[in-house]
Amino acid sequence: MTTDSWVEVSADGGYGVENLPYGIFSRPGELPRVGAAIGDQVLDLAAMSAAGMVEDRRYFASGSLNAFMVAGRAAWAANRARLVEVLTDESYRDQVEPHLIPVADVELLRPFEVADYVDFYSSEHHARNTGRIFRPRDEPLPSNWKRLPIGYHGRAGTVYPSGTPVIRPSGQRRTPGEPEPSFGPSQRLDFEAEVAFVAGVPSAAGRGVPTGAFREHVFGFVLLNDWSARDLQAWESRPLGPFLGKSFATSISSWVVPVAALEPARVPPPVQDPAPLPYLHCEEPWGLDLHLEVLINGQVVSRPRFASMYWTPPQQLAHATVNGAPLRTGDLFASGTVSGPERDQRGCMLELSWNGQEPLELGDGTTRSFLEDGDTVTIRAQAPGASGSRVTFGEVTGTVHPTRA
Amino acid sequence: MTTDSWVEVSADGGYGVENLPYGIFSRPGELPRVGAAIGDQVLDLAAMSAAGMVEDRRYFASGSLNAFMVAGRAAWAANRARLVEVLTDESYRDQVEPHLIPVADVELLRPFEVADYVDFYSSEHHARNTGRIFRPRDEPLPSNWKRLPIGYHGRAGTVYPSGTPVIRPSGQRRTPGEPEPSFGPSQRLDFEAEVAFVAGVPSAAGRGVPTGAFREHVFGFVLLNDWSARDLQAWESRPLGPFLGKSFATSISSWVVPVAALEPARVPPPVQDPAPLPYLHCEEPWGLDLHLEVLINGQVVSRPRFASMYWTPPQQLAHATVNGAPLRTGDLFASGTVSGPERDQRGCMLELSWNGQEPLELGDGTTRSFLEDGDTVTIRAQAPGASGSRVTFGEVTGTVHPTRA
């Protein structure tokens, strides 16, 4: 049974009081501000705080979640408890109802300001598949892969909110077999279905964030599409990794799901063999039972499960900071493509079409090796929530537009 | 002959009116604000603007240069002309002199807020040397190296001002020959002597910044030390590039040298063969005749020359944006290690000691394979300025501190 709210909430919608994700919304002529999703409504937290019904106004009368994200775990927990209280106790209805706005009437904006953006590579199935495709003569998994969560820094300035058009990037690429590189629009445009977490509370330089301190620093999770130009990426990446093949666009979902909402989704991750070094040891299981769906033009093409990820979020955070790099509020850490062992669990076109060798059939009779102009890619996810409920991540979506002349 | 200022300026100091670099300074109990260096003085531009003697106060009564950097080339030129006027025309002396502060009496802070940080790899000598050291069985230069300026995103949150202590990072590394990786403080800590430019004026998403538009967007140049843990880097970098081996610290110099001050330093870069693709073609010569010096504990160990860099700053900027990634104010682009053909022109310990095989002798009778705790690394640079003057970059310095327990 889900916990009852006096707000109408559909059982399958995933926006009950067990979720209460935060986002930034605006209406025409009004300033952007913080809201929480409940059912098909947005609860205006700026108005709620102005009315003295929730905490400190500085958190919520803001165009980003950063002020609230830095407030820390106790403030997050207190606000969450208060929201549950006012949304379940019928006696608050008259005071709260004026601050509910149908989500259809608002625009959802980028939820937070990104400080640094890191992208990992933590699905063993994805790593093995891309190894086979890109480095067919080598072992699919690099020798370091099971020793540490491989990652790299991406471009924070091109992390865009869901719905932002994705302009097909141009760049250098070399067609295999051709001696010379050429310049033009990417011919191998791809998506990558990922899950990301965002830091709220900074950490000190020179000190890492141990796996056990994950909840003290991390505010919540979003869905992320790491748009990728495979031809640019393949040509540029040696020896320093991806650059222009990734930096043109990264999309994130509008609602940030609090860490607390995902506690019921925690499951044991895959067995890690060899055992990781002590700084990567995690006392608690931090696999997350998130069920993703990837849609191209409304057709479901893949159903990756996040529980299959080899490296977990606390391990990623401990690794990224073990060299003494401090966390800043807004630091964003993405999982890498979420791919499972089955073809219909693969999280990007590169794998789904096996680099174009096995074009993917869409339900409309067309096929895809890579993305075409006009294609819309949408990633959704749900997780088990408290009291038998479901917790939804909503979606991250984007439509491919042609290269600008 | 240099242009005369009524402020006392030593001919060799490099802080004449031909330079006029910008920085952020503070004095005890006062707010950080913008200053310009002249001789051994800082001209307090916040005070000058409050007195109506230079442009708009919003530029200068700020703890970062970002507000002025976004103002654009016309504003930069107008302010520069005005500073030259008031510092050379004796009739302004009585009004201006009260706003000069000895540089010894101020603290210099981080000059700007970094948006994204990109690090290139644009010295052919450095690329060949590292290729020989890290990938001895392959061609030293990757096949893409002369086709595009290879680069990657670094961590913006760990770009620190000159003087910030550098804490030796810990992390995973595998000793060659050992089957298992281990964890501990880096045993191969290095510096990299680099030159970087910072963007002032943003560009639109989906549009690149052509080489000819460099001056419209770029505010100025700094020196940069890309501190590197070679053992961490070697183990983690395959296949996605450097991560923790670089992200613990990057240091930049305090003064930002305006692009205009470096016009007299422009020289033809090395011949580029094969000819780069059209989007990388540059009408004007943009090699820069900067003479760098690297000092360890006060001993000069290297004198790299920036004029030997294969890829130029306008080519780097055009490349980094050709995929449609927009520029933001504060985007920082570093050159990669500046190394020349001679041993005493190599810009990092990895090359100077040939990965520890040929330890470097310091003047104090000690040798170094890599950096030790307590070592201070200082990078300086000078360039020819207008009217036969010299333009100095000042220095970027940092001292290695032990890993925190």
UniProtKB/TrEMBL annotation, chains A, B:
**Positions with a binding annotation for Ca(2+):** 119, 192, 194, 226
Its UniProt pathway annotation is: Amino-acid degradation; L-phenylalanine degradation; acetoacetate and fumarate from L-phenylalanine: step 6/6
Q: Where does Mg(2+) bind?
A: 226, 246, 250
- Segment Disordered: which positions? 161-185
Q: Where are the transmembrane segments?
A: none
Q: Where is the active site?
A: 126
Give residues annotated as binding substrate.
121, 135, 233, 337
Q: Where is the Fumarylacetoacetase-like C-terminal domain?
A: 118-390
Required co-factors:
Mg(2+); Ca(2+)
Give the Fumarylacetoacetase N-terminal domain ranges: 18-109
Q: Which UniProt keywords apply?
A: Calcium, Hydrolase, Magnesium, Metal-binding, Phenylalanine catabolism, Tyrosine catabolism
Name the domain of life.
Bacteria
Citing just one GO molecular function, the answer is: metal ion binding
**BP GO terms, sorted:** homogentisate catabolic process; L-phenylalanine catabolic process; L-tyrosine catabolic process
**Assigned EC number:** 3.7.1.2
What InterPro entries does the record point to?
A: Fumarylacetoacetase, Fumarylacetoacetase-like_C, Fumarylacetoacetase_C_sf, Fumarylacetoacetase_N, Fumarylacetoacetase_N_sf
**What is this protein identified as?**
fumarylacetoacetase
Q: Which organism is it from?
A: Actinomadura soli
